[in-house]
Amino acid sequence: MTFTTWCYNRHLIQSTAHGTSDLKAAMRPPRFERIRLMRIEVFPEKCIGVGQCVVAAPELFQQNDEDGIVYLVRDDAPTDRRDAAIAAARLCPTLAIVVHD
Between 20 and 30 A from 78 (CA), which of 40, 42, 65, 99? Predict the structure, then answer.
């Protein structure tokens, strides 16, 4: 059995196991959705620990317990959080946050 056949059989078994009774649908390769990401930069040397970014987007930003300096929870965020990231960047009094598309 070749690698291609193994992948085909594995996909066919997985597709039929998930309730797909249509053989043509089971034979099609799986579709993957593309998720657009944006890049967020934080400059900790500019941050003074006000915390407005954490209030605006707590799923993207957090603060250190010791000094209150902001850090990113994740630097590549889905674009559906773009508005929250831009709001956080605008609320920062020292412009320590930059959002890139």
Answer: 65
Q: Which residue is listed with tokens 């039929």?
A: 16
Beta bridge partners of 98: 41
Q: Dihedral angle at the C-alpha atoms of 51, 62, 39, 78, nearest 10 degrees?
A: -110
| CA dist., res. 24 & res. 77, Å (int) | 36
pLDDT along the chain (101 residues), means of 10: 37 46 65 75 95 94 94 82 93 94 75
> Which position has the token pair 């196991």?
17
Domains of the chain by start residue, with CATH: 1-32 (no CATH), 37-100 (3.30.70.20)
